[in-house]
Amino acid sequence: MEVSKESILEQIGKAKRGKQKAFSFLLDRYWNEVYLFQLKRVNNEYEAEDITIETFSKAFDKIETFDEVYEFSTWLIAISKNIQIDKFRKKKASIYSNTTIESEETLKKIVDASPTPEDELIREQNLAELLRFIKELKPHYQDVINLRYFQEMSYIEISESLEVPLNNVKVRLLRARKLLAEIITQQH
Fold this sequence. Notes:
Blueprint: H1 5-16, H2 20-42, H3 45-61, H4 72-98, H5 101-109, H6 117-135, H7 139-150, H8 155-162, H9 166-187
Helix pairs in contact: 1-2, 2-3, 2-4, 3-4, 3-9, 7-9, 8-9
């Protein structure tokens, strides 16, 4: 079904006012376009999906900056392309830095990489603090975070487990991560 440009602009306006249904509409409408664009670029389903999620997260965070003179899909693709380029550069820099002579010398000087009891205690305290922050979220956001990051379920498995559409899972996860980041920022 073809959706008119006016209808899309109306949904963008609603999203700028924070209406959740508008975000869901935009995600449903443009998900495949962004995902397939990335899949062609990176040739890896998981990486394409992660970049697509990050694209929508960034776009939704900055939606008030969208200029309606342009096509929304073009704006999303530009964001997606920049995210993919940044990830590629970071990966390339990481590979390069890991192959330098200095890093090899540094690795030889490392005595023991196993965590000390102090490291374990810090990790456990950080995890406990993170769990406290997660408990401040609404239950449906807690559920999706728990299933994705602690039980390591795929989006499809989460969708089946919660009996909600796949795109709703993606939107909930985007919103949950954003809200969690806000809570953490406020607490620190």
